[in-house]
Amino acid sequence: MSKVIKILGTGCPKCQSMTNVVKDVVSTNNIDASIEKVEDIVEIMKFNIMTTPALVIDDVITIKGRVPTKDEVLALLN
């Protein structure tokens, strides 16, 4: 079953870095996932987080306020 990944962030450099890390891990490991970039502040607020970027996998907030390593993302997706 495909995972649904959401990256919450308004487009700051850290948000872009997180997006690149996640896309890289998904493509390198042939993970079946859709990646959605959520930049709308109203949508971000629905997740009740105060710091971006945040990584949401299948509607669960897994990382917030920092850019994860590729190994961390891979572990979360497996």
UniProtKB/TrEMBL annotation:
Pfam families the record matches: Thioredoxin_3
Name this protein carries in UniProt: TM0996/MTH895 family glutaredoxin-like protein
Positions of disulphide bridges: C12-C15
Segments passing through the bilayer: none
Domain Thioredoxin-like fold residues, every copy: 5-77
InterPro entries: Thioredoxin-like_fold (IPR012336), Thioredoxin-like_sf (IPR036249), THIRX-like_proc (IPR005243)
Catalytic residues (UniProt): C12 (nucleophile), C15 (nucleophile)
Species this chain originates from: Aestuariibaculum marinum
Keywords: Disulfide bond, Redox-active center
Superkingdom field: Bacteria
